[in-house]
């Protein structure tokens, strides 16, 4: 595995890959790799000649008071895990290069962000879309891999690629979970032991909502109420439980088509999100 | 010359050109072509295998009350002029495709826009940067050609390309002028005969400022005052006369390095801009 630290070197490598007609699968991460990331690498390896991973804790997508400083980091462990997973090129850009002094241009996301995490994290998805625009440009992947745990992020990337006519295919993979159902997340490390025992109830609550829909419930309010009732067992502070069309993230009076039920819960040192996307046929 | 009207067809053509290793020079325009545009085509032809031109009066870069409706248009004449100039591919996208329903993502320009036209045209350069991000993505040019009459636009495109790590080389060409010095502009057609006689004084006034600098003046205020005094002969309403570093567009107390003197004058049905960029050695 080659570790690349500058955009110029990364661009050189991706230009070379394009010329050799190698297909490139790209897994963007913020590091502290877990099985969720590694399953994306696995999928990317199956579908492409070469897998590129980036690790960059993107300051632009953290708001004031959010956990940029306490976001878990362990680059040496990540390098080992990426290599073991079969990543060919690992890109570790610097913040100084991604956001050079006097940088003047950024991406604004004006749709799909007035709900869910977008409501409480203003600017978060602008930061995600800005850094991905840069990274896609440097890496020029054929396919980019994202986990569905961050379903709103997937919806935003879908809009980014379509609105900017980018030559990248978005691949969204199902959420990887612990045995007890808790969605794998780098932030899980920041849960206290008690919170770690409670957190699996987030997914169980969403499953209760999904089960109601499968049994015929079409009123999003009834579904949300049921999820909220179940969520009491999860402890923490419930930030939201919401239900929309997916990936448009539009409110529905009567549930239909592809929809998402999503929740966010704040614990003492970690804010966890999870969701279920299902299609009403 | 091939005329292409959809992004999919244009992308197909540009992918084909990339595969055939043809270099692509791109001239983005809003149409109503004049010698300024055609000189860009000429330059692009000298420096590339294939020249692509686009004509798109971009609604996103016109503010409320600006001249989107009265912006001059004559597509049939433009097609003939482009063909005569040797353009190989003419891209005429639709607003419906460039800004599809529920488009969610745009580019924000946060630097180089708090001065000159950016101050009085809020959102203008966001619109320019957004449409160029889309067009660059669809056309994938090696080089893109812009006229220096729109010097602030050139500065913004420079930032866009660098900040987003785009694979496009910006080529800025000198302003093409009428015999009397008036900068060629599609908007000149909207001047009354009297205004047309007065408008050349814009460039003469800027030249007076440049001459002062060449004779040793280093105080931007003195230069601006002199330009303003000369501008009285230009009629219209002077919107601004400003002087900055270029392309950073930063205020200087003592002029040095590469600098711009720029002016905007509003006539009854046209707002004209012009500038001189010079290097103090």
TrEMBL record, chains A, B:
It holds the Pfam family Pantoate_ligase. Keywords: ATP-binding, Cytoplasm, Ligase, Nucleotide-binding, Pantothenate biosynthesis. Beta-alanine binds at residue 61. Pathway: Cofactor biosynthesis; (R)-pantothenate biosynthesis; (R)-pantothenate from (R)-pantoate and beta-alanine: step 1/1. It is found in: Cytoplasm. One of its GO terms (cellular component) is cytosol. The active site is at 37 (proton donor). Gene3D superfamilies: HUPs (3.40.50.620), Pantoate-beta-alanine ligase, C-terminal domain (3.30.1300.10). It is an enzyme of class 6 (ligase). ATP binds at residues 30-37, 147-150, 176, 184-187. One of its GO terms (biological process) is pantothenate biosynthetic process. Signal peptide: none annotated. Its EC number is 6.3.2.1. (R)-pantoate binds at residues 61, 153. It catalyses: (R)-pantoate + beta-alanine + ATP = (R)-pantothenate + AMP + diphosphate + H(+). One of its GO terms (molecular function) is pantoate-beta-alanine ligase activity. SUPFAM superfamilies: Nucleotidylyl transferase. PANTHER family: CYTIDYLATE KINASE/PANTOATE-BETA-ALANINE LIGASE, PANTOATE--BETA-ALANINE LIGASE. Catalyzes the condensation of pantoate with beta-alanine in an ATP-dependent reaction via a pantoyl-adenylate intermediate. Homodimer. NCBIfam families: cyt_tran_rel (TIGR00125), panC (TIGR00018). Belongs to the pantothenate synthetase family. The reaction proceeds by a bi uni uni bi ping pong mechanism. This is Pantothenate synthetase.
